[in-house]
């Protein structure tokens, strides 16, 4: 999209040649108007999209273009992700969901992460953010794409999104000027909607975010195709109006960037004006770039119309030059041939995966809202027995275009394996749940380890099958998706809630059947309807949002909001202070070692059988004595009896700027007396005094006793999460850490064909040990890993008899690209993996994998390292094997195929140090 080639001094690329290339791409659609700009809309795999963009840029260069193409895309997050590929890109919440957190920095971080993923594919322009103020939520198509109904909030969050996208090196385009937030629909559904607000009212509300965006340096603004009808203004289509584009946006609001039109192929606009005429009118009105987004014939019609306008003098050359200058200015800032032909690519997406996955998880954990829970039905585990059946009722809706389910929408719905223990209902009237909600049912069944009955509902209302399922179930979850516009959903949910209220339950059980309604699109479905007593909002129904919903349904640590918030004044929760302040002292090994050993034994003995990792811990487990990691441990003790009442371990890495709480242990007889609170408060104060501290985390890799909160027991994990949440831990980032094992190595055999398939790759594996290999291995580790792993590798290389290193090397130049440590139970390294003490004397360990960031096939490389390592340990007579740390869930299937099973699961939680603003640093 731009201006004619003869005026822009850009050589013409063969239009049909470009389109022919696009037609060959079977998995997505790409729409071009006037090269050298392109707007892309994908439902595709990222590798294909990246290659297509590269092909387009190659066509442009080979045709003589002096500057690259602008590649634009709709990527608003939530339900509007035009380019989606779960293998490479993360899902983030919608605009309204982010605004409910009150955390403007979260909006900025999400926007920057989105931009970094898109630039990896070669995309340099996002048609966003949405800056509409949702002043009328009734019957509005915009919904959760808006940040909300307050101009100040939309302005603030819109500004942060703009800055985040620009920091990620993509151009921005605010939309939909002057506003889609208060539309009236007077005619047929295909008629253009109308803005009836006066310009004065618009100026005081809807235009405020656009003014802030202009002041903040937004690159472009899209003008909508809506009609406008009020005093002093009568416009058929805003994007074709000089009064809107030129007088209001350019002159009055002093916007000097690019003006983009709404797509001229919207039915009412093309029917009323025609594509050729609309193109000329849009350009004359002040649009620099005109969108046509569906068919080649329409795009050719638009080009012919613009050419005719130039030839007959309707469009002046000076006006063309203005647009050329603006487009080339934007290209100069965000494009170059180097960027076009050397995008960060799939390797960078792989590097971003962990950070962005944690950001996605954190964002959804903080955006899914419990609006109210009048009867305290949450968590469901408190009102249901394990043998009870849970009924899930979901509407028949189309999958969101940005979700993985959208790719599977045409597939036949299959029943899940019996292990999921779900039941689907199917007959001529009541259909099985769609793919978009099928995973929700599976996740609910797995999470509660019980039976879930899943049925769909339609505008036909409650059928006999629903009533039969309702009779069987002990609790009900009803899903609605934009019930404000789909009235049948509202009626269905309210009817189910009424039946639950009057339902007679078994003796000794609640008189009402628990009913939870979850709105997975608009939060306004039942925002003020008190007949829905337990109400949750997710703001979208992507896979990630629904997985978070499962956690909320079972996790009472989620705090219930009395309403859906929409305020920029949200502040971090004040950290709880201990009701009783205990004297906390520094741990002294000469004084406290024996007492700490006794405390650990007592605490382990009081725990349920098999549930406490403290059974394998001693005082020595927490003492690193490292020259690169500071450790400070604290105790609450009885100075008369010398008994320890509580213990807390902390560590700080100057190199990584991360402070960690490794464990908090309280004597069983002194729990619930604020001992743990006092220890935690002292530990946080000590860590905050560390110069350069950036992150605080729960869990440590070194020593490897508690890499995070233990998650094997869901109930225990829930209690721990709730306890730390009350102390102020609101996750900035979280990650799941696994500990795996091969319990009987004597009977282990490598999977058929694995060794042969790995041998065919351009990687050589070998086993080394001893200090003579220190320099080369440590150079690799320092370049690709943190301080904790550097310490472990130094210990391993200095312990030749008990440890070894498996190396993966590039066959062409011999450079090290991956390493993993092997160790025996008697080695020095095993001292820092206390659970090795719980094994027999013939136990061995493998772990501390370090892989170069530029490696493409990390899964195969990890398998190669493990294959050689496991074979070597088995050859040495090792009977059982521990893999002590895995933080990449995608690696689990391959490891399980090799014979590893999950031993322990942990959740590491990180907070920004700057968030702990209620603690004194002195």
Automatic annotation (TrEMBL):
SUPFAM superfamilies assigned to the protein according to its UniProt record, in alphabetical order: (Trans)glycosidases, Acyl-CoA N-acyltransferases (Nat)
GO term, biological process aspect, one: peptidoglycan turnover
Protein name per the record: N-acetyltransferase domain-containing protein
Leader sequence segment: none
Family the entry assigns: Belongs to the glycosyl hydrolase 3 family.
Keywords: Glycoprotein, Glycosidase, Hydrolase, Membrane, Transmembrane, Transmembrane helix
Region (Disordered): 557-579
GO molecular function: acyltransferase activity, transferring groups other than amino-acyl groups; hydrolase activity, hydrolyzing O-glycosyl compounds
Record has Amino-acid biosynthesis as a keyword: no
Segments passing through the bilayer: 26-46
Domain N-acetyltransferase: 585-743
Short name of one Pfam family: Glyco_hydro_3
Basic residues composition bias: residue spans: 568-577
InterPro entries: Acyl_CoA_acyltransferase, GH, Glyco_hydro_3_N, Glyco_hydro_3_N_sf, GNAT_dom, NagZ_Beta-hexosaminidase
Organism: Lithohypha guttulata
Source taxonomy: Eukaryota, Fungi, Dikarya, Ascomycota, Pezizomycotina
């Amino acid at each position: 999209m731009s201006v004619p080639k003869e005026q822009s001094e850009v050589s013409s690329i063969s239009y049909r040649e470009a389109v022919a290339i696009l037609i060959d791409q079977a998995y997505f659609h790409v729409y071009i108007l006037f090269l050298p700009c392109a707007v892309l809309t994908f439902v595709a795999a990222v590798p294909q999209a990246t290659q297509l963009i590269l092909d387009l840029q190659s066509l442009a260069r080979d045709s003589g273009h002096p500057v690259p193409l602008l590649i634009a895309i709709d990527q608003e997050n939530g339900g509007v992700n035009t380019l989606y590929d779960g293998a490479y890109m993360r899902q983030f919440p919608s605009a309204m969901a982010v605004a409910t957190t009150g955390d403007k920095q979260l909006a900025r971080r999400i926007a920057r992460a989105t931009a970094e993923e898109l630039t990896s594919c070669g995309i340099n322009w996002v048609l966003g953010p949405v800056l509409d103020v949702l002043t009328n939520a009734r019957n509005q198509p915009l919904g959760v794409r808006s940040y909300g109904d307050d101009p100040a909030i939309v302005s603030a969050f819109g500004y942060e999104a703009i800055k985040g996208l620009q920091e990620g090196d993509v151009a921005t385009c605010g939309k939909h000027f002057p506003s889609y937030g208060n539309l009236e629909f007077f005619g047929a559904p295909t008629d253009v909607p109308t803005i009836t607000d006066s310009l004065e009212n618009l100026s005081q509300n809807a235009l405020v975010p656009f003014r802030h965006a202009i002041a903040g340096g937004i690159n472009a603004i899209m003008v909508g195709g809506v009609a406008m009808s009020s005093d002093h203004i009568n416009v058929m289509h805003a994007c074709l109006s000089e009064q809107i584009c030129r007088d209001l946006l350019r002159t009055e609001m002093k916007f000097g960037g690019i003006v983009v039109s709404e797509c001229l192929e919207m039915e009412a606009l093309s029917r009323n004006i025609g594509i050729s005429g609309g193109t000329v009118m849009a350009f004359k009105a002040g649009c620099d770039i005109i969108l046509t987004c569906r068919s080649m014939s329409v795009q050719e019609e638009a080009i012919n119309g613009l050419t005719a306008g130039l030839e007959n003098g309707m469009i002046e050359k000076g006006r063309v030059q203005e647009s050329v200058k603006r487009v080339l200015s934007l290209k100069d800032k965000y494009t170059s041939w180097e960027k076009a032909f050397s995008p960060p690519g799939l390797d960078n997406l792989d590097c971003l995966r962990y950070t962005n996955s944690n950001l996605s998880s954190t964002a959804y954990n903080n955006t899914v809202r419990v609006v109210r829970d009048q009867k305290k039905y949450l968590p469901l585990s408190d009102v249901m027995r394990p043998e009870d059946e849970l009924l899930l009722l979901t509407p028949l809706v189309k999958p969101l275009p940005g979700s993985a389910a959208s790719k599977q929408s045409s597939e036949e719905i299959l029943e899940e394996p019996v292990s999921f223990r779900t039941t689907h209902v199917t007959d001529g009237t009541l259909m099985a749940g769609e793919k978009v909600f099928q995973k929700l049912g599976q996740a609910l069944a797995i999470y509660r380890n019980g039976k879930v009955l899943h049925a769909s509902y339609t505008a036909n209302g409650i059928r006999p099958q629903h009533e039969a399922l309702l009779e069987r179930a002990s609790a009900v979850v009803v899903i609605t998706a934009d019930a404000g516009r789909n009235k049948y959903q509202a009626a269905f949910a309210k009817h189910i809630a009424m039946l639950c209220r009057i339902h007679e339950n078994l003796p000794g059980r609640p008189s009402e059947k628990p009913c939870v309604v979850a709105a997975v699109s608009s939060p306004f479905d039942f925002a003020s309807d008190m007949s829905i007593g337990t109400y949750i909002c997710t703001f979208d129904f992507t896979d990630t949002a629904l997985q978070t919903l499962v956690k909320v349904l079972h996790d009472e640590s989620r705090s219930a909001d009395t309403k859906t918030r929409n305020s920029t004044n949200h502040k971090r929760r004040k950290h709880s202070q201990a009701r009783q302040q205990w004297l906390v002292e520094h741990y002294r090994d000469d004084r406290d070692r024996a007492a700490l050993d006794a405390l650990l034994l007592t605490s382990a003995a009081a725990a349920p059988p098999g549930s406490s990792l403290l059974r394998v811990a001693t005082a020595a487990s927490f003492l690193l004595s490292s020259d690169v990691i500071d450790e400070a441990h604290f105790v609450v003790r009885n100075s008369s009896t010398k008994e320890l009442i509580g213990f807390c371990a902390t560590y700080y890495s100057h190199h990584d700027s991360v402070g960690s709480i490794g464990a908090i242990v309280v004597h069983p007889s002194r729990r619930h007396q604020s001992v743990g609170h006092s220890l935690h408060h002292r530990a946080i104060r000590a860590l905050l005094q560390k110069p350069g501290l950036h992150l605080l985390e729960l869990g440590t890799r070194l020593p490897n006793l508690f890499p995070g909160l233990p998650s094997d027991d869901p109930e225990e994990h829930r209690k721990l999460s709730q306890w730390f949440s009350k102390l102020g831990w609101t996750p900035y980032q979280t990650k799941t850490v696994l500990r795996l094992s091969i319990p009987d190595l004597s009977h282990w055999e490598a999977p058929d064909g694995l060794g042969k398939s790995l041998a065919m790759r351009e990687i050589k594996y070998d086993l080394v040990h001893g200090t003579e290999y220190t320099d080369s291995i440590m150079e690799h580790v320092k370049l690709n890993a943190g301080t904790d792993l550097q310490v472990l590798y130094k210990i391993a290389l200095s312990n030749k008899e008990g440890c070894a290193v498996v190396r993966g090397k590039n066959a062409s130049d011999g450079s090290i690209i991956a390493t993993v440590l092997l160790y025996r139970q008697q080695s020095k390294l095993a001292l820092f993996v206390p659970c090795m003490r719980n094994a027999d004397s013939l136990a061995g360990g493998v772990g501390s994998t370090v892989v170069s960031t530029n490696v493409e096939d990390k899964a195969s490389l990890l398998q190669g390292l493990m294959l050689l390592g496991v074979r070597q340990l088995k050859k040495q007579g090792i009977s059982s094997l521990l893999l002590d740390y895995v933080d990449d869930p995608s690696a689990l299937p391959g490891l399980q195929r090799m014979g590893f099973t999950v031993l322990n699961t942990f959740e590491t939680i990180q907070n920004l140090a700057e968030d702990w603003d209620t603690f004194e640093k002195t």
